[in-house]
Amino acid sequence: MKNDRWVWYKEAVPQKGGEGVTRRVLAYSDELMVVENTFEKGAVGALHHHPHTQITYVASGVFEFEIEGEKKIVRKGDTMLKKDGVEHGCVCLEEGVLLDIFNPYREDFVGD
What we know:
Elements: E1 15-18, E2 21-28, E3 33-39, E4 44-48, E5 53-67, E6 70-75, E7 79-82, E8 88-103, H1 107-110
Antiparallel strand pairs: 1-2, 2-3, 3-8, 4-8, 5-6, 5-7, 5-8
C-alpha cells in the first residue's frame, strides 16, 4: 500500500487500535501518512508520544483531548497539531472518527 496512488477504503484492513478503537491505514509514503480511527463512546486513546508530527482532524463525534497536560473538548471540523515528542491522548465522549496525518509515516502501523 505504501506509495499507492489509489487506496480503496474497502481494501484498507481494519486493525485494533485499542479497546473500542478501529484503525485503518490509508494512503502513505515515506514522508506522509493518513490514518482513520473510529472510536466507540468511552474508548480511550491512552496518553503517549512518538517521534512524528501529527495533525488530527475530527471527522465526527466529540472527544476530550489532552495535549501536554492541557485538556479541551473537540468536535467535528476541529484540528489539533502535535509536534514530535509531545504527549497526547483522548477520550471519546460521543462515538466518532478521527483522521490522523503523520510526518514521517508510522512504521509501527504497517510493519515496514
